[in-house]
Amino acid sequence: MRIAFICSGLEPGRDGVGDYSRHLAVECIRRGHEAVILSLHDEEYAGAEIQTCEGIPVQCLRCLASLPWEERLQSAREFLTAFHPDWISLQFVPYGYHPRGMPWNLASGLKSLIAGRPLQIMFHELWISPGKTSSLKHKLLGVLQRWIIFHMIQMLKPRVTHTSNPLYAELLRGGGVVPEELPLFGNIPVVKVGTEPALPEPLADSEVPVDAVGRSDWWWVLFFGTLHPEWRSEPFISILIRAAKRADKRLCLISVGRIGVAGETIWETMQREYGEEIVFIKCGEQPEDRISTLLQLADFGVAASPLFLIGKSGTANAMFEHGLPVICPRDEGIAPSALPSDPLLYRCDASLEARLVAGLPKRAPARRVGEICARFLAALTLE
Hints:
Layout: E1 2-7, H1 16-30, E2 34-42, E3 47-53, E4 56-64, H2 69-83, E5 87-92, H3 106-114, E6 119-123, H4 136-156, E7 160-163, H5 166-173, E8 180-181, H6 201-204, H7 212-215, E9 218-224, H8 236-247, E10 250-256, H9 261-274, E11 278-284, H10 288-297, E12 300-302, H11 314-321, E13 326-328, E14 345-347, H12 352-358, H13 369-382
Parallel strand pairs: 1-2, 1-5, 2-4, 5-6, 6-7, 7-8, 9-10, 9-12, 10-11, 12-13, 13-14
Antiparallel strand pairs: 3-4
Helix pairs in contact: 1-13, 2-3, 3-4, 8-12
């Protein structure tokens, strides 16, 4: 098959959906198919280029967001016409095309690009779901986003619709759409960790020992990616401190990746409040091989997403693929029966302290991109 992936941005390491599209396209190529990628709202670059991922080149066209919409569409049409795809795969996230998540003109533009070709849509995100105490403006925004998404589905008539988690599937069914669930994979390839692993400099240069002997006295607790404003440090940090004292361990909290504006504030606040009991190390953006090494050497990770949306978190999936236990402090009242099934996932409940003291088991790293790509291709083939 010839598959054209469409996403909003393709700057490596700075756009999660773009990274996902690249890895999926490369896995399709690895399996004998042809694939290209088109970004329609790129913030970093404009033009055609070859991006190499895991040693495999993939042809890309990046349309700069600052250019007029019609100019971007014309370039995209020429790119797709030259490739002549059998399928188009839209990797959709609303905020990738509009700062408030309301891409009004996207559906009509996509219709002209698709031009009757078979379409698959992967919904990485949907509309915001305001709570009871949300402002009228916030509630109205959610209503408008929902309308835009269902209008887009009605206009584009995708043959296959995917999303990554049960909550999003239920929300789509509420509007008459019957999606298939397609889990995410992590965007960080697993590297082999040598006897002298390459670690991010802020960690390697810190007071925390990185040798095997010194490491045994410490817990490395890993935060990967963005910390959102809704994330709360308590009761998780207090549980962590109590468990470390009982287990006779010292604590090192490590952040890797782009933590975000709100995350910077949360991190600085935690450092002020718990700096006497915990060492905080912020590594920032790092090459994939160093992130993979850190994911394998950490003792456990911390999820930023709420428990009911853990399936949409690329960073949590990267932790799982690297065999790292993941604690989710944002429980938010999910029923035990609805808990995601991965045995490496732990909720922040009354049993967590004892589990930490006993030790959270890890497992051998294993990527899921091959398995998930096979499911993706099967869905297209069945159509």
